[in-house]
Specification:
Blueprint lengths: L2 H4 L9 H7 L10 H18 L2 E6 L2 E5 L7 H16 L5 E3 L3 H13 L10 E3 L5 H5 L12 H9 L5 H5 L3 H8 L1 H10 L21 E6 L2 H21 L4 E10 L4 E12 L2 H15 L6 E3 L1
Parallel strand pairs: 3-4
Antiparallel strand pairs: 1-2, 5-8, 6-7, 6-8
Helix pairs in contact: 3-4, 9-10, 11-12
Length: about 300
């Protein structure tokens, strides 16, 4: 939902019918997934260049651990924001703190301080030692894991602010809400030891296809192999990768699997190169007449 639309109470992921009831003159624009993915990758690339550890959280959100960097966190945030604004032509809001929890809430709070008629481009940093001061007066609904139902249940217990939640009994919260209640208490007390977990380095790319019915049609098998090779090619090129080992897996009608691989002299990333190696393996090891359920 665009920021002008949000003034009418329209929210992200809201059903279209409900959104149109709130704003009958709403302009509906189909998303361009390709552009979204490209812009997301461009932003993530900037983060990876500016921070030693980055954990993507969604297509438009990530956590970055900059603890070991010598620069002040506000300067790092300004540098990232400036680059995203200039290089990707997108607004960029950042939150900073001593934990993922604080950074996330600071980011959301910073956005609320921006003009309501355009996308926010904010920076909000919670200094070390001021975590409780920042959290205490916020409503409990700002905490991770506190949705509308949980917020209502807490309100029935007389708990409406994070300070009141922090002062509650952890045993009472655990008994009432289970493990999420314990987590709420820790978060209300600014305790969040969860680390930033960067994505592991991608070492392989693969695609598979399960046939609706087992097939021994060689033309169909090779056409499917060509399509899968093209998908793998796009995947590795998008990631800026190439590889030397091509692996082919076939699953027979009895659900047993057969895997063989070929290691090439030089790295490849083109669809035709991947297909050439894969179909070579296919010709070597597939016996005519054998039914295949997956390739």
């Amino acid at each position: 939902a665009s920021y002008p639309a949000r003034r009418y109470g329209i929210k992200s992921a809201m059903p279209m019918g409900q959104a149109l009831r709130l704003c009958p003159d709403l302009v509906i624009v189909r998303p361009n997934t390709r552009v979204c993915v490209e812009r997301s990758k461009a932003v993530m690339d900037i983060l990876l260049q500016e921070a030693p550890s980055v954990e993507p959280a969604s297509i438009d959100e990530a956590f970055a651990d900059v603890t070991i960097l010598p620069e002040p966190i506000d300067k790092i945030a300004r540098d990232i924001q400036r680059r995203v604004n200039a290089e990707v032509d997108l607004p960029c809001s950042l939150g900073g703190g001593t934990s993922r929890l604080l950074a996330n809430i600071a980011n959301a709070f910073g956005k609320t301080q921006q003009p309501k008629d355009k996308p926010p481009n904010s920076i909000m940093i919670v200094p070390p030692g001021e975590e409780k001061l920042f959290l205490d007066n916020l409503p409990v609904g700002k905490l991770w894991g506190v949705g509308s139902r949980t917020e209502q249940a807490l309100e029935e217990l007389g708990v409406t602010t994070i300070a009141e939640l922090a002062a509650s009994s952890i045993d009472m919260l655990s008994k009432r809400f289970g493990n999420p209640g314990r987590d709420m208490w820790y978060h209300a007390n600014a305790i969040d030891p969860s680390p930033v977990l960067p994505l592991p380095i991608q070492k392989s790319a693969g695609r598979q296809m399960t046939f609706q019915s087992d097939t021994k049609n060689e033309a169909e098998l090779k056409l499917t192999l060509r399509r899968l090779s093209a998908e793998v090619g796009r995947q590795v090129r998008r990631a800026g990768l190439c590889g030397r080992t091509v692996t082919l897996t076939l699953r027979w009608e009895d659900y047993s699997s057969f895997t063989r691989q070929m290691t090439l002299h030089n790295p490849i990333d083109r669809d035709d190169q991947i297909y050439a190696a894969a179909v070579d393996l296919f010709h070597r090891y597939w016996l005519r007449g054998e039914l295949v359920s997956l390739i």
